[in-house]
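Homework help board

Subject: predicted structure for assignment chain

Our instructor gave us this sequence and asked us to write out the predicted structure in token form, then describe one feature. I got the tokens but I'm not sure how to describe them. Can anyone check?
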Amino acid sequence: MLALIARPLVFVIALLLAGPALAQAPASVPPEKVKQLFELLDDPSVKAWMAGQRNQNAGSTGAPAEAGASPADASPNAVAAPGQMNTMASSALDGIKHHIERIARTLPLLPGQFARVRAETMDDMSSKGSAGVLLLIAMFIAAGVALTWATYRLTRPFRLWIIAQPKDTPIGRAKKIGGRTLYSSLLIVSFALGSAGAFMLFDWPMLIREIVLTFLMAAVATAAVRMYLAAMLVPSFMQVENAVEVRALPITNETADHWFYWLPRVVGVFAFFAAAFILLPGLGIDRDGMMVLSVGADFVLLLLLLLAIWRRPRTQREGAHHTAATWLLTSYFVVLFLQRIAGLYILFWFTFAAFFLPLAIVLAQRGVNFVLRPGSEEAGRPTIPAVTIAVIDRGIRMIFILAAAYFLARIWGLDMQSMQDGDTTTMLVLRGLINIIVIALAADFGWSIIKALIERKLGIETPHAVMGEEDVPTLDPQQARLRTLLPIIQNILLAVIVVMAVLMILASVGIQIGPLIAGAGVVGVAVGFGAQTIVKDVISGVFFLLDDAFRVGEYITSGRYVGTVESFSLRSVKLRHHRGPLFTIPFGELGAVQNQSRDWVTDKFNITVGYDTDIDLARKLIKRIGLELAEDPEFKHWVLEPIKMQGIQEFGEYGIVLRVKVTTRPGGAFGMKGKFYVRLRQVFKEQGIELPFPTVHIQGLQNPHGAENAPLEIAPELKIAVAQSHANRRRKKANTTE
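My token output:
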């Protein structure tokens, strides 16, 4: 790490403390007043004032500008003279041209400025020299590394605790990542105390103090990035077992090693350039010189980023798109570099945020879902509630977007506290867009929490059935009622949040919402009178739900509608018939509702036996079969009262009709009746009890040939009559059972 920090440090210090060769460069610098004049002419307020004066003069006299106009006349804010076209594109091009001309004009003057910087710094550091400053920085960096190593040795129990956390549960993985992050913070604090803290204990000359302390803070920032990346990416050098499972992101070992290698180097170079740019204005480098130096720094960073992009490993997810993604990223960073050279700083930061903000949001979402994924089967598949994951995900997203909006507002110079009359239309639009983003984020955050809570109550994460005393699957009545009411409440809350968000957005952009609310009330009354049927359906549905007349999953009958309740809306209910058709019925047309799935059901059916049957024996056999089925593992959890004979129903056409009944939980009697019939037929046959069935006995037929044992001949007309009689009897019986 010392080598990583020292390499850019040597480069920047050598740049600051240039050798005598720079001292021999031409030192011809324009007078200070001329430089101040150029800076004054570049001020946006001065440009706007001059443009207004030219516009006023052109409007009053109609004369063209004088030949001796100021160079600021070519600024982007300049107004075209009569007969000339001055579009937004031409103004932007003029601004880019002016910016590049400033760079070209300043570039030859940099050696003289560095000569002055060296002369001033060497006067203050005559006792130390450049080598002495480098040695001081290296010494205090080494002190920080030594204290970090001591902290590493003393915190071994904490490292063992992190290793002992389970990787098969979401809580265990979160503790591992949190522990590694906290441990990295301890090491960073140790490095800062050992380097910058130790340096502050001594009295130093002011210039040496500023230079050394600034670069030490850059070294601390670089070390912090490296340690936090190690905590999140878990590269291979840490030799962590099953590192893929305990990372903060779902990436491979090759990808983790690659970005751990390149990102600290990019950030380190950026930090040391930033430290140099903090020091250079105080050492005598003017604004134009800083602008020229920033071009070189940007070019170095561009090269590092392109090397990191082109050398990144190919992943299975990218596949054939790896090359296309590489070229797109290259084009993006080249465009950023060109925007910096052209001086389009506002567009630069907007382009920067347009890529890195979605990237940060996507990475955070993947990280949260990856770390908090369900545990393994060996650990019992523990899970984190969906509401917790939603709060974490949406919270991180909101923090990122708000931070980006605040940063861009500062870059654009927006005043978010007040709405000033002097603001331009562009500023008003930008402020309105930022307010819209903030309100939409707050609405999305609140809705995500409400939705996650409702989904958790609905039992989407766990099975809807609960286990009874003996592992019987039963429907929890409270859960069934929640599954009925919560979707409607969810839709109502969504509508409320959307309406409130829209009204707040309109108010934030300066639109008076009072008349809108009053107008909406009048329109609502008119719509209510014109849509009485819809209002009737909605109100009827509210009372049906308040009365708990039915729930999702229950089988109901209402008039000619029969089926299982599948879902609701504010106006209607959907019933699925047992044959498949789906009815959508407005609440106003339901009327009386017969619920066949609430608490328990009693099913009664008939059995016909012969007239010579021993009724008492049949009753005992039916009771015995009912008790056997009640103990059957397939049916015992459904049976509340076993099958038993209730008595003689009637003397039927073919035999005695016995009445049988059974009480079960809703839906449990259908399958049991089929098995009861099979078992009853077998037992009755063993006991000699006849189950009569309709037969046709024909008399009066004569054998045409007089043979006693010859088969009888039946006329075709008689066959048709018998068949039709049987068909009519079956049709009548089927209609009765329906």
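Reply (TA_rk): Your tokens look well-formed. For the description, you could write something like this. The CA atoms of residues 414 and 423 lie 9 Å apart. That's the kind of observation they're looking for.
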